[in-house]
Write a structure and sequence with these properties.
Layout: E1 10-16, E2 31-37, E3 43-46, E4 49-53, E5 56-57
Antiparallel strand pairs: 1-2, 3-4, 4-5
Length: about 60
């Protein structure tokens, strides 16, 4: 999974406990990693404004 998190055209999101070795301080009973392939038809928006589409950032 660590290799997959670094693939171009994917988005990685983690919920739950941070890794203390990286300076994270939030605590939780779980740590859940999610990876989504975004190269084909995916669009992510913030406040209704698209900033990521088809595996590429729109804001430079």
């Amino acid at each position: 999974m660590l290799f997959d998190e670094k693939m171009g055209g994917t988005i990685h999101m983690a919920l739950g406990a941070a890794y203390p070795d990286t300076g994270g301080t939030n605590r939780s009973a779980v740590h859940w990693d999610m990876i989504c392939d975004t190269r084909d038809g995916t669009e992510i928006t913030a406040d209704g404004v698209p900033f990521y589409r088809n595996g590429e950032f729109l804001i430079k």
